[in-house]
Amino acid sequence: MGTASLIVAVVALAFYVVVWTICLLGWRTARIRYAHPTLPSRIASLSPSSAPGVTIIRPLCGLDQNLYNTLESCMKLDYPKFEVIFALQDENDEALPVVRMVMDRYPNVDARVIINSQRIGVNPKVNNLMAPFQEAKYDLLWVLDSTITVVPGTLARSIEAFLSNPTSYALPNDPESSPLLSISDDVRKPPTAGEVGLVHQVPIAICYQKTWGSLIEQAYLNTTHAKMYLAINATAIESCVVGKSNLYSRSNIAKLTTPSPSLRQRPIPPTGLAGFSPFLAEDNMIALSLWHELSLKHAMTSDVALDFLGSLTVRDYVNRRVRWIRVRKKMTLPATLLEPFTESIVSGIYGSWAITRLLGANTFALFCLHMVIWLSVDLSTKKALETNVRGIGPLGSSLTFLAAWTAREVMAMPIWLMAMTSSDVVWRGQKYRIIASGEAIQLEDR
Length: 446
Known about the structure:
Elements: H1 2-34, E1 54-59, H2 67-73, E2 82-88, H3 95-105, E3 111-115, H4 124-135, E4 140-144, E5 148-149, H5 154-162, E6 196-207, H6 212-235, E7 245-249, H7 250-255, H8 261-264, H9 282-292, E8 297-309, H10 314-331, H11 333-338, H12 344-359, H13 363-385, H14 398-419, E9 424-427, E10 430-434, E11 440-442
Parallel strand pairs: 1-2, 1-4, 2-3, 6-8
Antiparallel strand pairs: 4-7, 5-8, 6-7, 9-10, 10-11
Helix pairs in contact: 1-6, 1-12, 1-13, 2-3, 6-10, 6-13, 6-14, 10-14, 12-13
């Protein structure tokens, strides 16, 4: 038993070090990339004839939190050449009057509404995006979720990150000219293998309605989620993307083959966006396909995607976390099984025990020290991410945030256990079953 516990302690300590390495990498990335004022991109000063055109697509369904402000943010961008498409599937959608108000206030912005009830699969967002993808003026597409707000310089900095590709843009006559000052939309080529094919931002949450569910969700997104998201993307060993704010080439998306086993059985399997219609996590699947099938890299900017949270109950928060864990476990089971061991309380327990077993110490004191340091890293990460957006949203109470953070950490393990007991999820009022491929099968209402 002594030898067995020694081996277990060594393995536990090694994994504990790995967990802390990931946490500190995420924290360090946040401090380096976000904890300073953002600089304007040179692309913002280009003429419309020199800048690459971008189509911004806002898929909408119903009245989301602060919808007017989120939609208005994409009308105030500091960028010389873009259009905005507001995509809906129902002409009676409650979001449409808000869209009309925003368009009326900014008549000089190239904006339009597309209403299309086309349904090609279970994912309503993919259904909503089909027509805008086909009708967009420009090859560069920036898809922004309805709850996301961005600051005026975000698009220009995203394009600059996209243009880090050495060969995606043919240069005019002067080969010595800067690529950033010599871009013509007529000569643009889609990215190819080894180049940047997707630009995204880390989401952070803003709470206007301070219910406990929304506060706990905010604590999760602005600390644990952000650290892991930034760390995984910093290593660049695998794709890790959420679809809150994604910029990519329509031509690249059109080349993708469907990752769906069920769709591949058809005589003519769908390609492009339609091939991702069976997945609830279509954003992650598209990013994975760009990464693996086309060998395109992903890039991030010094901007964040501000996610305006609605009024969530604690039950709403639990259901949301359960839903996405159930989706992930069908896509990456090994990583999902390891997930609890990366959480603060569980890692603190086995890490403190391992150090005590190997080196001798007070386990409880080590655990308390672990939690204090973990909280400090989380608060520092949150502060860095909020550097350039502190004027957006209401001021928050430190004690309230600490209470929400504590609740999030305590609830992490029970939520994971609940998620592992089933593969059924509820999304936008509809029940689905997630199968082995990660696809969703719509279930009849019971």
